[in-house]
Amino acid sequence: MAMTEEQRSAINGLALALMVIPAGDRPAAIALMVTEYRRRAAEEAPDLSPEKIAAAAGRFGSLVMRRFERLVALGGEGGHG
Which of 11, 19, 44, 47 sits between 20 and 30 A of 80, alpha carbons compared? Predict the structure, then answer.
């Protein structure tokens, strides 16, 4: 399923936010994003199994990370190192 423009924009915004987070804090920031995604997915789609939510959350985290890596490749790493 293709992402909507709203989803693409949200992923891009989260990836941009990672640019200003110190490198050592990024894994925790991504974990927090994924945890929040899982919580919201469970609230908004209570009929989904925990396995499906976990898989979607994993894809979400990967998308954010890939977009962040592209931003770094395009413009260098921002933030605090």
Answer: 11
